[in-house]
């Protein structure tokens, strides 16, 4: 018998407190059948319901380890895809609002990466012999599959240095997409000169590069960025340090090179949390990452005299992850209670198989 989907219209009108109560009730009834995985950037009114939290790497590992029938992903689209790829065929990955995408992930697509590969082959001969494609996990599943098929790998902001070593162990050059900043910072920390890293603009022929630039490059950096982390500027750090010379600055590597260079610490969201929590009492921090996480850290650390401040003067949260609100979460969970799966994220089998090759390479070395 076909079960009808409960319409979202009935949830859209709920007050936040009503939605919260419905989430708690549905969670209790679903028990171990559903697990709620939540990225650290998730808004507080959703984050409070998480069973497990983490950055992209930790969540990918958790998704591969859970045996819950339903993996409800409070994050963005590519994260739910990774959960689908790394979980068993019997498990179901769900994204409570399909509009929760990642603007950086959208800056690369398969057609443009394949064109890039073709153009590289005209200059270098067979690219598979010279270049390791490395995709940041913030990318669509078909790009992970491309890396799987071409001897490449996936990385996250936690393991990018290890993955870059692996990539150069395979071939002499790396094509890094879609985040130029993570690629540049990781290469820079490895001692690769900036003039050996060229930006590949996918909207220009040959990425806008000359054959000589392509031949001499160690890393080709895809012209993509995170709309949240691009807001942080070196001038924010300079001004803050004048007022708080004793303070410490910590940034996410999706920030630009000058921000990273002028920070005391650079690392993934999990690294940022752990570093501040392990730091001494009564310290002051300037943090260059997403606002929901910074606000949460500021509240949690206040009792021990730790002051946590946000780097940019403007509000910058991940507006797409923000789409997962209590109303969508309540709607998703109540449908599951009725036996209906809404917003399933299902990667086509061939794509999933090749994407898993690239993800498994990553998990094996990190
Ligand atoms: P991490 O989760 O690896 O810190 O990356 C941050 C991010 O922007 C996720 O989209
Ligand atoms: Fe994408 Fe940036 Fe949001 Fe992360 S913070 S999901 S990279 S838009």
Automatic annotation (TrEMBL):
Its EC number is 2.5.1.72. Keywords: 4Fe-4S, Cytoplasm, Iron, Iron-sulfur, Metal-binding, Pyridine nucleotide biosynthesis, Transferase. It comes from the Bacteria. Pathway: Cofactor biosynthesis; NAD(+) biosynthesis; quinolinate from iminoaspartate: step 1/1. Binds 1 [4Fe-4S] cluster per subunit. It catalyses: iminosuccinate + dihydroxyacetone phosphate = quinolinate + phosphate + 2 H2O + H(+). [4Fe-4S] cluster binds at residues 102, 226, 318. One of its GO terms (molecular function) is quinolinate synthetase A activity. One of its GO terms (cellular component) is cytosol. Iminosuccinate binds at residues 39, 56, 136-138, 157, 252-254, 269. One of its GO terms (biological process) is 'de novo' NAD+ biosynthetic process from L-aspartate. The keyword Metal-binding applies. PANTHER family: QUINOLINATE SYNTHASE, CHLOROPLASTIC (PTHR30573:SF0), QUINOLINATE SYNTHETASE A (PTHR30573). Catalyzes the condensation of iminoaspartate with dihydroxyacetone phosphate to form quinolinate. This is Quinolinate synthase.
């Amino acid at each position: 018998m076909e079960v009808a989907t409960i319409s979202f219209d009935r949830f859209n009108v709920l007050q936040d407190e009503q939605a919260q109560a419905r989430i708690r009730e549905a969670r209790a009834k679903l028990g171990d059948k559903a697990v709620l995985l939540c990225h650290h950037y998730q808004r507080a009114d959703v984050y409070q319901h998480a069973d497990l939290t983490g950055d992209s790497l930790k969540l990918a590992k958790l998704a591969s380890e859970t045996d819950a029938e339903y993996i409800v992903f409070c994050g963005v689209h590519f994260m739910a895809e990774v959960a689908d790829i790394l979980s068993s065929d019997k498990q179901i990955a769900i994204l409570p609002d399909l509009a929760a995408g990642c603007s950086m992930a959208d800056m690369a697509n398969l057609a443009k990466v394949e064109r890039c590969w073709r153009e590289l082959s005209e200059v270098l001969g067979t690219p598979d012999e010279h270049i390791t494609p490395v995709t940041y996990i913030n990318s669509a599943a078909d790009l992970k599959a491309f890396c799987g098929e071409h001897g490449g790998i996936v990385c996250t902001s936690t393991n990018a240095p290890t993955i870059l070593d692996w990539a150069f162990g395979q071939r002499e050059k790396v094509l890094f997409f879609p985040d130029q900043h993570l690629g540049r910072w990781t290469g820079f920390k490895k001692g690769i000169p900036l003039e050996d890293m060229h930006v590949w603009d996918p909207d220009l022929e040959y990425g806008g590069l000359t054959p000589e630039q392509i031949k001499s490059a160690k890393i080709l950096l895809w012209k993509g960025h995170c709309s949240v982390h691009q807001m942080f500027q070196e001038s924010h750090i300079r001004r803050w340090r004048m007022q708080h010379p004793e303070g410490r600055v910590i940034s996410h590597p999706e920030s630009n090179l000058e921000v990273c260079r002028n920070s005391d610490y650079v690392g993934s969201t999990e690294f940022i949390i752990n570093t501040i929590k392990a730091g001494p009492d009564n310290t002051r921090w300037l943090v260059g990452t997403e606002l929901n996480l910074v606000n949460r850290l500021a509240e949690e650390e206040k009792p021990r005299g730790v002051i946590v401040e946000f780097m940019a003067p403007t509000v910058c949260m991940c507006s797409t992850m923000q789409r997962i609100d209590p109303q969508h979460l309540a709607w998703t969970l109540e449908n599951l209670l009725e036996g209906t799966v809404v917003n399933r994220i299902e990667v086509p089998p061939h794509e999933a198989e090749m994407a898993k090759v690239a993800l498994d390479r990553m998990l094996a070395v990190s």
